[in-house]
From TrEMBL:
<comment type="similarity">
    <text>Belongs to the class-IV pyridoxal-phosphate-dependent aminotransferase family.</text>
</comment>
<dbReference type="GO" id="GO:0009097">
    <property type="term" value="P:isoleucine biosynthetic process"/>
</dbReference>
<dbReference type="InterPro" id="IPR033939">
    <property type="entry name" value="BCAT_family"/>
</dbReference>
<feature type="modified residue" description="N6-(pyridoxal phosphate)lysine">
    <location>
        <position position="183"/>
    </location>
</feature>
<dbReference type="GO" id="GO:0009098">
    <property type="term" value="P:L-leucine biosynthetic process"/>
</dbReference>
<comment type="pathway">
    <text>Amino-acid biosynthesis; L-valine biosynthesis; L-valine from pyruvate: step 4/4.</text>
</comment>
<dbReference type="InterPro" id="IPR043132">
    <property type="entry name" value="BCAT-like_C"/>
</dbReference>
<keyword id="KW-0663">Pyridoxal phosphate</keyword>
<keyword id="KW-0028">Amino-acid biosynthesis</keyword>
<keyword id="KW-0100">Branched-chain amino acid biosynthesis</keyword>
<keyword id="KW-0032">Aminotransferase</keyword>
<dbReference type="GO" id="GO:0009099">
    <property type="term" value="P:L-valine biosynthetic process"/>
</dbReference>
<dbReference type="Pfam" id="PF01063">
    <property type="entry name" value="Aminotran_4"/>
</dbReference>
<dbReference type="InterPro" id="IPR001544">
    <property type="entry name" value="Aminotrans_IV"/>
</dbReference>
<dbReference type="GO" id="GO:0004084">
    <property type="term" value="F:branched-chain-amino-acid transaminase activity"/>
</dbReference>
<protein>
    <recommendedName>
        <fullName>Branched-chain-amino-acid aminotransferase</fullName>
        <ecNumber>2.6.1.42</ecNumber>
    </recommendedName>
</protein>
<comment type="function">
    <text>Acts on leucine, isoleucine and valine.</text>
</comment>
């Protein structure tokens, strides 16, 4: 793959050589299969298509300076997919099937893992869909689990630069007792409309408030939210946000760096008290935020010097990336070398 411009490939679908598949039929999961087809043959009455019975995951593999390929915390993704399975009545995929499929997908597409110097990575997309036909609203009796991969460019090809978020109270991503805590496609369909509006207006994402009272911060479209003040890393606790593995990791690193960590309800008013804020997720690790616009009250919250990310966000970002690329000791056993 010597002729790919790794640094500028961005985040988009790309073909690679192989994908891994596993079928659930007659009440049990089958063996992992290797495929080089990009297509799946699916019944037109599959539950995934009509009723959104599908869940996905997203994680990355990184090539280190030492040439070794590392996958970050895939057991956590496996467990989160199990939680999604429980949430929308799909048969639970064994953790070991998940991790073995991820390992194989990476290994078999090794030539697509970007080189260390590029800052790019191999994005891994596990997907579980209800394939069995139903027309009544009930779970399918057949499922397909697949893992495919693609190289993606560095999230910040021009440097670690802060962006703006927007609050729009007329839209919700997930209901208070709904499926917000599961990584399912339906949540994404529900967020596309306002996501597009936000982008058209120059914002990187919507910052959602809790849907019930609009008093507390929830999360940003596809990433968790955190704020830092008085040497404390603060991130919302809510039943309608997706438990981010990046956030979970940052909380551990923040504590090691001497910050206090609080996961609790975060009232809207606290936005005026934070010294730094950021969005976190696999795609960017941390996406630093320089401003939040409350569109309903025409009010801005501004952070830092408007040019660069804050000190703690930068430290946390560098630390987590260093672990992922094998430059820093992996004290917590977060990476697996394949
Ligand atoms: C996937 C996802 C995140 C980020 O989770 P990571 O495990 O850190 O990648 C955050 N919010 C939502 C809604 C997501 O779907």
């Amino acid at each position: 793959m010597e002729n790919l411009d790794w640094k500028n490939i961005g985040f988009g679908y790309r073909d690679t050589d192989y994908n891994i598949r596993c079928y659930y039929r007659n009440g049990q999961w089958g063996e992992l299969e290797i495929s080089s087809s990009k297509r799946i043959d699916i019944h037109m009455s599959a539950t995934a298509l009509h009723y959104g019975q599908e869940a996905f995951e997203g994680l990355k593999a990184f090539k280190g300076k030492d040439g070794k390929i590392r996958i970050f915390r895939m057991d956590e993704n496996a467990k989160r997919m199990q939680s999604s399975c429980d949430g929308i009545l799909m048969p639970k995929l064994p953790v070991e099937k998940f991790t073995e499929a991820v390992r194989r997908a990476v290994k078999m597409n090794e030539r697509f893992v970007p080189p260390y110097e590029s800052g790019a990575a191999l994005y891994i997309r596990p997907l579980l869909i209800g394939t069995g036909p139903q027309i009544g609203v009930k779970p399918a009796d057949e499922y397909l689990f697949t893992v495919f991969v693609m190289p993606v460019g560095p999230y910040f090809p021009e440097g670690f630069k802060p962006t703006n978020l927007v609050i729009m109270r007329e839209y919700d991503r997930a209901a208070p007792q709904g499926t917000g805590k599961y990584k399912v496609g339906g949540n994404y369909a529900a967020s596309m409309y306002e996501g597009k509006l936000a982008k058209e207006q120059g914002f990187s994402a919507v910052l959602y408030l809790d849907a019930r009272e609009k008093k507390y911060l929830d999360e940003c479209g596809p990433a968790n939210f955190f704020g830092i003040k008085n040497d404390t890393y603060i991130t919302p606790k809510s039943d309608s946000i997706l438990p981010s593995i990046t956030n979970k990791s940052l909380m551990v690193l923040a504590e090691e760096m001497g910050l206090k960590v609080e996961q609790r309800k975060v009232p809207y008013e606290e936005l005026s008290e934070f010294e730094e804020v950021g969005a976190c997720g696999t795609a960017a690790v941390i996406s630093p935020i320089k401003g939040i616009y409350d569109s309903d009250n025409d009010k801005w919250f501004k952070y830092g010097n408007q040019e660069e990310a804050g000190e703690w966000s930068t430290k946390l970002y560098n630390k987590l990336r260093a672990i992922q690329y094998g430059e820093e000791e992996d004290k917590h056993g977060w990476v697996e070398i394949v």
